[in-house]
């Protein structure tokens, strides 16, 4: 996470750049996946340790999760939700799910990478990971830098857990739809890596600072090796999101989006402002082929699009406490509910789609951490607890979910 070009005139106080980076990191904290309530009195040393950890969490939290109190901006997407409660009749499904081969969800817990085939691979001991994704069968993770927690260290591990590469970067890594390439920002340069480039990094744009975060990427394995092979969506803490292409293009995000949550080759989950609805800001899903919004609404924050493009994860647009208390699955074509979970007294802190089309999420109930998977209603599989609850404080989230 990188170059600071916030004081071009030279007459701005030196602390301004630091304050701005801190404010940007604080705003990213509203997307953080770790929140809660401490339960027991702490010693002075424990208080100091907690303070350092809290500062880290507020500066390197991954994008896309929990909401601020009474958030004024509402993301939406091609999605649908339904009630996942066992004693409630869900709405009639409009789609028939294709047969899928169930696999175990993959995630990181206790420095162990639990893979979808059931294998457990040990990772080096160290600080917690703030983000994780899969690239070409390898695990790409991010963790805070020891000496500059506003930046991250990106590490690549092979399938056996051996470290392949490590480098400094901004928070945020965007992997292509087919997993053959990924994008990151390092030293102010937006860079892509793919097997087509020999696994090395290829720059496609520059001029970025700590406020910029890559969040989604579309295209194919030729990204970086051929023009017009991929695009990368980048959120800017100081302005609208933009889209950068490997052909050198630099364009505003669809509909002047303030924020992009996810993107595929056919649709984009985004947040926009409808000036005719001021002071309400809303979002939706943009249909790439039609060049227009598929639909918009103001009830949900639309997040990650499912691997098959049929659904979108979503959380309520507004909350008045700890974080999102309900997680939704919305139908990508109708925007109607197709899945839902709400736990009494629980807050949802993070979520990602599994490769077999279920929504995996982490919930904290004030004392225990829960890892669950939620299928769509027409899937036929019920809500599952992946593991037994893990007791811990709000700062002790044991799970890092893996983006697909």
TrEMBL record:
The chain crosses the membrane at residues 60-80. Residues 93-102 have a biased composition (Low complexity). Residues 1-23, 81-102 are annotated as: Disordered. Keywords: Membrane, Transmembrane, Transmembrane helix. The keyword Nucleus does not apply. It comes from the Bacteria. This is WD40 repeat domain-containing protein.
